[in-house]
Design a protein that fits this description.
This protein is mainly α. It has a domain of about 130 residues. It is built from 5 helices and no strands. It starts with a helix and ends with a helix. About 5% of the residues have low confidence.
């Protein structure tokens, strides 16, 4: 009779343990699957962000080079290359905005997916991008826009440095493997280890 009671208790305890272990395994699998899904989305967003930045940067630098060629030709022919009207400033502003708008959209996707280490680099890159936009307008319509700020060359250098920092942060993030245990579970384990 006692043996049957012990066997019953052991069977019930075994089923509870099996239920707990099975539930924990399903939670861990769901966590890993979510981490892998998030990692894939981040990789896509990071790649799209850098591609949009490269395109915008290329468009702006090509336009500055094109205008500098025109200005040099004008100077060679005795014309004032800086004889702008307000329309020239508006065109420069519009070109800068058209080039940079897609980058802002991609930056929002990066900020949405995180993590915080990437957020800081993305925000810094966004700030350098705004400086680049202002420097572009100053460079292409300098007389009409005496706005103080970094020169085109300084803005380009700062933007390249911000891109390199962003790339490094993305590289580190993408190379990390998904964490198997949840943070809550790790914290409980550490607390037990410290108290025991």
């Amino acid at each position: 009779m006692i043996a049957a009671l012990v066997a019953g208790v052991v069977a019930v305890a075994g089923s509870f343990i099996g239920l707990y272990v099975g539930r924990r395994q399903v939670q861990d699998e769901a966590h890993i699957e979510h981490e892998q899904w998030l990692r894939e989305r981040r990789q896509t967003a990071y790649g799209n962000y850098l591609a949009a930045w490269d395109k915008a940067f290329g468009e702006l630098t090509t336009e500055v080079a094109r205008l500098e060629e025109i200005w040099n030709a004008m100077e060679e022919h005795g014309q004032d290359p800086h004889s702008y009207d307000i329309e020239e400033w508006e065109i420069a502003h519009e070109k800068a905005e058209d080039a940079i708008s897609p980058v802002r959209e991609k930056q929002e996707q990066v900020l949405l997916l995180g993590p915080e280490a990437i957020d800081g680099a993305a925000i810094g890159m966004g700030e350098r991008l705004e400086e680049l936009r202002h420097a572009f307008v100053r460079q292409t319509a300098a007389i009409l826009n005496p706005d103080p700020g970094p020169s085109w060359g300084e803005a380009v250098t700062a933007m390249k440095a911000a891109r390199a920092e962003m790339f490094e942060a993305m590289r580190v993030e993408v190379r990390e493997a998904p964490v198997i245990a949840s943070k809550r579970r790790l914290f409980r384990g550490r607390r037990r280890a410290l108290s025991g």
